[in-house]
Amino acid sequence: MKHHAIVCRCEDITEQDVIDAIHQGYTDLEELRRKLRIGMGPCQGRVCISLVKKILEKETGKKVSVESYPTSRPPVIPISLGALAKKTRGENETKS
């Protein structure tokens, strides 16, 4: 039975994608993160890591320790949304 439930919305990863990766030999969270890019989207894994942990435990029969959780990697220099949204005069404007 195929599992089409979305596990990671940021990277559009389904439960079946995770199960397939585990069956291919990716058997810890760090390996799955590198293979599927879980935890690398805008939410930094706040939603998907716990779901992937449960799937991994179910498929392997092994408990996943908290120490194996991938570390979040925020930007080196934080940028405000205002700075990103700000546009200079004349940019994307047409003259009437």
Explain what you see.
- This protein is mainly alpha-helical and 96 residues long.
- The chain has one domain: BFD-like [2Fe-2S]-binding domain (Arc Repressor Mutant, subunit A, Orthogonal Bundle).
- Helix content is 36%, strand content 5%.
- It contains 4 helices and 2 strands.
- A two-stranded antiparallel sheet has the order 1-2.
- The radius of gyration is 18 Å and the shape is elongated.
- The termini are far apart.
- The mean pLDDT is 81.
Provide the low-confidence segments as ranges: none
Query: Strand order, biggest sheet?
Result: 1-2
Can you say what the CATH homologous superfamily is?
Answer: BFD-like [2Fe-2S]-binding domain
Total beta strand runs? 2
Which structural class should the secondary elements be placed in? mainly alpha
Give the overall silhouette: elongated
Offer a few descriptive terms:
96 residues; mainly alpha; Arc Repressor Mutant, subunit A; two-stranded antiparallel ribbon; 4 helices; 2 strands; elongated
